[in-house]
Amino acid sequence: MTTVEFSPAAEPLAAKLLEPAREILARYPAGRERSALLPLLHLVQTEEGYVSPGGVAFCADILGINKAQVGAVATFYTMYKRRPTGEYLVSVCTNTLCNVMGGQEVYDGLVEHLGVGHGETSADGKITLEHAECLAACDYAPVVTVNYDFTVDQATPESAVELVENLRQGKEQTPARGARICSLKEMQYQLAGFADPRDGAVADGVAGAPTLRGVRLAQQHGVAVAGFDPDTPITKTKPARAEGGLPPRTDEADKPVEAKPEGKIASAVKKAATAAKSAAGAVADKVGEHRHAGRTTDTGDVKDPEVRAAESRNPTGDTPGDPATTSPAPGNPAERAGVASNEPAGDGKPAGDTQRGESIVTQRNAEQKPATVDPNPGWQNVRPGTEEEK
Fold first, then answer.
1. CA angle 35, 39, 42 (to 5 degrees)
2. Are the C-beta atoms of 37 and 27 separated by less than 8 Å?
3. What is the pLDDT of residues 52-103, one digit of tens each?
4. Are 81 and 45 a contacting pair, CB within 8 Å?
5. What segments bear the compositional bias annotation Basic and acidic residues (predicted)?
6. DSSP readout, 178-229?
7. What is the Cα–Cα distance from 59 to 49, expressed in whole angstroms?
8. Bond prior to 142 in cis (omega within 30° of 0)
């Protein structure tokens, strides 16, 4: 791997995390290392407990991207913390189902007991509390997790308070499900893609009854997948056709199947369906005639009126010529007076685009200019008044 020059802000973390960071980068194909940003951000949190400015600089330098790109990702996901967190992150689900089942009461009880709110850490630095939108365990609602592992199912305010007190006092807390409880920094190491180094920690948790309900019902009723062996790894490629399966397709399968003679019942059903379609078509025609009653008959001319008018003025479609020949005659005296005083611009362009147009604009401005100029032009817009008002 090429040598990376780290900025002063990134050097402290680079001295500690460079080797595991390179191990993470090695998981991705050449040229796709940028995809390693997510596990790298978790790796940064193993040291500092949150994504610090130095952590952003470290990720940017090792991936060859700028800090704004790292920050955009780090601020998008809630699992990347933007300020220091406690040793244990306690999350209470307050989404729809958990809320109905008492999740908000559990959260409120912890807020009152710890004296902190969402995203805040207790005074002893042990517990960071947050409410979560969903923890994907609706069948155990309401649920509480510690460092993203399920710890208390069907929680109550009392059981949640007991949980945080055990954590603060260093007592062993057996999770309802999931692995043995660890610190948040240790969990970030696992989220970065490394195995839990604690012997037997993963086996501590057991699956809950709602999770195993489907398996238990299948065993009770003798339901099983044919040929499934749980000890056989799932193949990544399509398995070969087993013996006794469907034969491969041959040209014989492409031949058209000869139509068999229809029975009396099938023929009667087919005739009835045809008659029903014909009747439906007749009804639709009658409805259409009723809807269009009184409307003008379509003559086939579907041109837009404006297009038709433009073609009548200039049938050949070339540039405008003599206005006297291409423009329709005014229809009344007022229109004729307006047309007579409206000198058109040359070449069909707006006035001012040509020398002739500029002269027209100049001439009209001169005609509209007042004969005398008031030394105080601000008064020109004042409403005229009577002598008494003055």
1. 145
2. no
3. 999 999 999 999 999 999 999 999 999 999 999 999 999 999 999 999 999 9
4. yes
5. 249-263, 298-311
6. SSPP--HHHHHHHHTT----STT-GGG----HHHHHHHHHHHHHT---TT--
7. 15
8. yes
pLDDT in tens, 2-53: 788 899 999 999 999 999 999 999 999 988 999 999 999 999 999 989 999 9
What is d(CA 182, CA 200) in angstroms, rounded to the nearest whole number? 13
Contact 206, 177 (CB under 8 A): yes
Whole-model pTM?
0.56
Strand 149-152 relative to strand 120-121: parallel, antiparallel, unpaired?
unpaired
Sequence letter at residue 187: M
Domain ranges for the chain: 11-74, 88-204
Task: Give helix 11-25 / helix 53-63 axis angle, nearest 10°.
Answer: 50
Instruction: Return the DSSP state at 247.
Output: P
Angle at 348 between CA 347 and CA 352, to 5 degrees: 80
Choices 2.60.120.1140, 3.40.1190.10, 3.40.30.10, 3.40.50.150: CATH for 88-204: 3.40.30.10
- Stated as kind and residue range, the H or E segment containing 151 is strand 149-152
Judge contact between 114 and 129, C-beta under 8 A.
Answer: yes
- CB proximity list for 88: less than 8 A, separation 6 or greater: 126, 127, 128, 146, 147, 164, 167, 181, 183, 184
CB atoms within 10 A of CB 148: 17
